[in-house]
Amino acid sequence: MDDSTPDNVVRLNFGKAQKPVVSPLALPIRSVFEEFLQAGIVAVALDTRVGQCQVPPSFRGESQLVLNFAYAYRVPDFGFDDHGIFATLTFPEGYFYCFVPWESILSMHSEALKKSAVWKLPEEHAPEAATQKSHLTLVTD
Fold first, then answer.
1. Residue 4 counted as domain residue
2. CA 80 → CA 20, 34, 56, 101, 137, distances in Å?
């Protein structure tokens, strides 16, 4: 401000309108999953110790497990809802009905979109982060 502008006046620049920026922190996990799924295979990294994860016994207790989901796999019971992702998947020991609650998801990646989303790290990799709120970081390749 110069000396001729009163203290109670605020000058605003109403130049060219800026495109609003949506913070990636505002994107819920489910929305990102839906976006990635529309493009193809989604690699979902999860902590099997969180929530009511249902995975084969050989993977229970794993701090990081990656499962792939895609419409192209034509899994008859594949779906997702407000609670998480569910499908019967194939493992070395055979078919197993899996349930992945949203709160157990650490990150996901879409090769088709060249994008990744990271919400949190497994507790043993970032013990100080375990006490903080989860956050989302979108990373593009």
1. no
2. 30, 9, 19, 9, 22
